[in-house]
Amino acid sequence: MALIVQKYGGTSVANPERIRNVARRVARYKAMGHQVVVVVSAMSGETNKLIGLAKELMAEPDPRELDMIISTGEQVTIGLTALALIELGIKAKSYTGAQVKILTDDSYTKARILNIDKENLKADLDAGYVCVVAGFQGEDENGNITTLGRGGSDTTGVALAAALGADECQIYTDVDGVYTTDPRVVPEARRLKSITFEEMLELASQGSKVLQIRSVEFAGKYKVKLRVLSSFEEEGDGTLITFEEEDNMEQPIISGIAFNRDEAKITVLGVPDKPGIAYQILGPIADANIDVDMIIQNTGADGTTDFTFTVHKNEMNKALNILRDKVQGHIGAREISGDDKIAKVSVVGVGMRSHVGIASQMFRTLAEEGINIQMISTSEIKIAVVVDEKYLELAVRVLHKAFELEAA
Amino acid sequence: MALIVQKYGGTSVANPERIRNVARRVARYKAMGHQVVVVVSAMSGETNKLIGLAKELMAEPDPRELDMIISTGEQVTIGLTALALIELGIKAKSYTGAQVKILTDDSYTKARILNIDKENLKADLDAGYVCVVAGFQGEDENGNITTLGRGGSDTTGVALAAALGADECQIYTDVDGVYTTDPRVVPEARRLKSITFEEMLELASQGSKVLQIRSVEFAGKYKVKLRVLSSFEEEGDGTLITFEEEDNMEQPIISGIAFNRDEAKITVLGVPDKPGIAYQILGPIADANIDVDMIIQNTGADGTTDFTFTVHKNEMNKALNILRDKVQGHIGAREISGDDKIAKVSVVGVGMRSHVGIASQMFRTLAEEGINIQMISTSEIKIAVVVDEKYLELAVRVLHKAFELEAA
Asked: How far apart are CA B113 and CA B212, in angstroms?
């Protein structure tokens, strides 16, 4: 008997028929003697519908009230999923985040989980219940409802698996695993049987939408065995996210290629090249709760430097205003500019550690296609570049081929 | 400065524009210096939509899960209403029933309020907030979400007014007050400026849909000043529900005529006429949580008696099955029959206490129209009769005229 946490995304619970499918799958695991915790998202489209309603009343909705509203999406789904299970003769009980309770900080719309009280769930699991928990939501210490941000249901699933010491956390989605890259861009993309946690983390942070990065971080921190599966296929083992590199001669150097169209580039030109500049620029950005991804600073020849960083497209104008209002005069920068017509492409693989020349191969491949590289950022197992948005698909396709990712 | 609780029904918050209207009205009261608690229902149609979804998954939905699902309707509205207020520059904060907290028993789908914790609301009101509370819902002692049954938002409003010691509880609805009868049936029906609590209680219990009976009971018990108003009119004083009969020569004998098409009649024929029969028949009905309204027992001549009672139409078959399975053989009844083609018509008025002959006037009026009376039930201020459903409108119209209710 194992304890399994299964998380189903919005498309997997999009309508009553699909919810019945989820219930049937849960029933099979139950019949095998497992204890099952089910985490569900809102029915696909619901969260956006609710946000739309909120924006009709307030263009930038008060975040506490927005969380109050959008958290209902998952609350409907847990009730419906529990009904589908009960209809199959399975004991089931739904829980909101607050009922579990999943304690978060009070950063509405992007709260972080602080603690999970597992006692209620444990007692119900031991009494034979399937526990159906609302993803994406929690409660702060004052009893206010919070949400974890887009994709937060994955985080809920992994955090519950960690808190309960589950044997496996299964993430059911509309794809049947993690691919070498997005098959919509490269039809030859291939499903990976397994991928290391570090690679998955890089892929997620670089824009692969299969798993939300925070859920992967959680899984890594608490050593949760994570598996990505399709909710639309009866069979298939999906992709297992492992903690150790397989000792395998055939281990590919590169596991996958991720990309991201959601970032915008902000450049601060002609900054005096002296200590503290990075903090003076990024401090006010952080204060405004804007996430910064890549950061690059070049040393210039004339005692000034150029400073470039990327933020989410939606926050570019906010960041530009902050820099122009509060920073530019203060630090004596010549110019502040923004560009949201960019895309980021990353190659990721633990094999990089033992193979040199990956970066040069990547740059050569892009150069041969005439694709200019605007920014470069590297980690031990990843090389990411920013290119003009219009070259994104081309870049991904040629890199997928150059690193022979279509081979089985 | 007064403390006012305003309750808005589903049609008053049916869409963003109407929610903005609610916010503007609240803003006017706030500008007068009042403290305001707003109680809202789900947007009209939402609760039925959610029940429909639930029934797609389970024909008779598990009540705990049903409450989990349908309580989201009000949760969306409180968030939207708070946003509309904040957009007007008014400090506002939404509360679910659990957040208040409104403690109920655990009778899912028809829970009763046991206690209301007023401390959070008081603190926020004193800090200048408008508190927007979800109607219709609460939480049991184990933290399960409960709902109060149809119309439960009125009960929430009155219960909050009682707990907070509010100066007035205003019930905003799609009619501008309490009428002598339903104007859709009798166009000459007239709005009452005031009505006594007892009359309102009888009208509500006899099928007048303006206020839910439990809210009137609550208002009576805790002496809450209740006013029914239209949310679609800027002006108008609606109908005030008073605690004392006005010392008014012009006080009409009859205040109004209520009717109800929702009941069905169940008759147990040929029951041995001995002690304990009523309990043996109605005990199993009560155990099944079926509400019984009118009860009539005739003494027969041959040592047997006929026993008749009414239940909600939706529960007639359930009640019949219980009687046939568990009761008929046991008590030796000859026959059990049900009839759901009936309607109940009631005349209500405190003036009845000092005027004789109301009953005979009522019976004569119906007889003149050839309307047969199937059952009669009376209280100090009410006479209710059950007639064939097809005569309902005719009965209401002739009684409205006979008691001169159209007169100003």
From this structure: 14
Q: Is B123 on the interface with A (CB under 8 A)?
A: no
For residue A209, CA distances in Å to A47, A397, B353 come to: 17, 18, 74
For residue B173, say whether it is annotated as part of any ligand binding site: yes
- Smallest CA-to-CA distance from B114 within B48, B163, B183 is with B163
What is the arithmetic mean of pLDDT over A247-255?
A: 66
Query: Rounded to the nearest 10 degrees, how much is the dihedral formed by the CA atoms of A47, A49, A53, A58?
Result: 60
Give A306-359 as a DSSP string.
EEEEEEEGGGHHHHHHHIIIIIHHHHT-SEEEEE--EEEEEEE-GGGGG---HH
Q: Is B390 assigned to a binding site?
A: no
Flag whether the ipTM exceeds 0.85: no
Contact assessment for residue A254 and residue A351, using Cβ atoms and an 8 Å cutoff: yes
Token pair of A314 as six digits = 């939606």
- Would you say B196 and B241 are in contact if contact means Cβ atoms under 8 Å apart? yes
The model's pTM: 0.78
**pLDDT band for position A386 (cuts 50, 70, 90):** very high
User: How far apart, in whole angstroms, are the C-alpha atoms of residue B394 and residue A361?
Assistant: 90
Average pLDDT across chain B, whole number: 91
B92-116 mean pLDDT: 96
Determine the Cα–Cα distance for residues B88 and A58; give it in Å rounded to an integer: 9
| Three-state DSSP state, A244 | coil
Residue appearing with tokens 């166009």 = B187
Q: Cβ–Cβ of B86/A58 closer than 8 Å?
A: yes
Residues of B in contact with A50 (CB under 8 A): 76
B99 interface with A at CB cutoff 8 Å: yes
Q: Taking residues A360-367, report their average pLDDT.
A: 92
Compute the radius of gyration of chain A from its Cα atoms.
Answer: 23
Phi, then psi, of A107 in degrees rounded to 5? -80, 85
The partner residues of A347 in beta bridges, in order of sequence, read A257, A383
| Residues with Cβ within 8 Å of residue B234, at least 6 apart in sequence | none
Domain that residue A115 falls in: 3-174
A133, part of any domain: yes
DSSP helix, strand, coil percent of chain B (3-state; round to 5): 40, 25, 35
Among B76, B86, B119, most A C-beta atoms within 10 A, so best to mutate, is B76
Q: Is residue B124 domain-resident? A: yes
A228 is in an annotated binding site: no
The gap from C-alpha B15 to its chain's centroid, in whole angstroms, comes to: 24
Out of A293-302, B21-30, B389-398, which region has the weakest mean confidence (pLDDT)? Answer: A293-302
User: Would you say residue B206 lies in a domain?
Assistant: no
d(CA B156, CA A14): 33
Mean pLDDT calculated for residue range A32-50: 97
Here the tokens at position B152 are 């439960």
**DSSP string spanning A109-141?**
TS--EEEE--HHHHHHHHTTPEEEEETTEEE-T
As a whole number of angstroms, the distance between CA A307 and CA A315 comes to 18
| Chain B: closest CA distance from residue A214 (Å) | 27
The tokens describing A405, both together, are: 């990712």
What are the C-alpha distances in Å from B309 to residues A308, B270, B285, B373?
Answer: 81, 15, 11, 15
Q: Which CATH number belongs to the domain containing residue B143 in this structure?
A: 3.40.1160.10
pLDDT at A251: 62
Report the domain count for chain B. 1
Interchain pair B20, A57: CB under 8 A: yes
Is residue A114 in a domain?
yes
Measured in whole angstroms, the distance separating CA B290 from the mean position of its chain's CA atoms is 17
Q: Residues near A366 by Cβ (< 8 Å), separated by ≥ 6?
A: A373, A385, A387, A395, A398, A399
Mean pLDDT calculated for residue range A364-370: 93
Tokens describing residue A41 = 């998202």
Query: What is the residue type of B274?
Result: K
| CA terminus-to-terminus distance, chain A | 34
SS3 assignment, position B21: helix
Q: Is A237 annotated as a binding residue?
A: no
Q: What are phi and psi for residue B298, nearest 5 degrees?
A: -100, 140
